[in-house]
């Protein structure tokens, strides 16, 4: 893979741990040429940001290295980023999810069967829930994955998702699946190539039959990442996630102080591995500019309450990457945290 100092200022490893065609460090001359062609076409169209090599490769892989299709996907994504929530770059710097439950704790929903959207909408709105989701995707990309890459010495670009369907009955299925469908569109269209593996556990009777029909319309590469399991999921899950990093309720041994659902453990909490995200540095640069009155701007710093994505179900929210990394070289969520998929 050819890096270009004009666009690539990475301070973390840039080679994928497994030799997959089209992935960083394992590209062909034709794929490298596609990166240059895509970047040139975007520059000619007036784009100047997010043109680094890793981003170009993610969009190209998502469109099977069809440069024209990758360009359209990138253009659509940039349009959405400028419009959504007043601009995603600004949203991630300023958004605070302050909605609380009655006992004062943040509202965290990680299991689809426990979602009561009607109750959720009494304390928040769907718009804010989705805005929170987007902020979590941004923080997954930076600083969480870069910090994990630094710790383990190779590039980590994706997450493993565990989606628990226990308790998803007919009464809840319609509203839950409708919400998941909406946020899935965001992850698929605007955060390509972030899904490593998706484990659907406690799948109810009949779900496998429905999925067998749905998967006919999915990309074969995506289908290979999805594993539909019933209640006997522990063996396969533990083959993916070390026992000490899997919450006890899912067959692991992790019992975080204060509860795994509130844990935010990971390399991004360790000064040895983490660095301020680029979106925060942009905020500092803006606030360092003199104001119209001549006084210095004051940075508000990082958004408060950055622990989990409140009010969004597991398998939808890009969550934490375990401090131990992933056995197969891919990041996976920390104990009990929701994860990203696209």
Automatic annotation (TrEMBL):
<dbReference type="InterPro" id="IPR036865">
    <property type="entry name" value="CRAL-TRIO_dom_sf"/>
</dbReference>
<feature type="region of interest" description="Disordered">
    <location>
        <begin position="265"/>
        <end position="342"/>
    </location>
</feature>
<dbReference type="InterPro" id="IPR036273">
    <property type="entry name" value="CRAL/TRIO_N_dom_sf"/>
</dbReference>
<dbReference type="InterPro" id="IPR051026">
    <property type="entry name" value="PI/PC_transfer"/>
</dbReference>
<dbReference type="InterPro" id="IPR001251">
    <property type="entry name" value="CRAL-TRIO_dom"/>
</dbReference>
<feature type="compositionally biased region" description="Low complexity">
    <location>
        <begin position="303"/>
        <end position="321"/>
    </location>
</feature>
<feature type="domain" description="CRAL-TRIO">
    <location>
        <begin position="97"/>
        <end position="258"/>
    </location>
</feature>
<dbReference type="Pfam" id="PF00650">
    <property type="entry name" value="CRAL_TRIO"/>
</dbReference>
<protein>
    <submittedName>
        <fullName>Cytosolic factor, phosphatidylinositol/phosphatidylcholine transfer protein</fullName>
    </submittedName>
</protein>
<feature type="region of interest" description="Disordered">
    <location>
        <begin position="1"/>
        <end position="30"/>
    </location>
</feature>
<dbReference type="Pfam" id="PF03765">
    <property type="entry name" value="CRAL_TRIO_N"/>
</dbReference>
<dbReference type="InterPro" id="IPR011074">
    <property type="entry name" value="CRAL/TRIO_N_dom"/>
</dbReference>
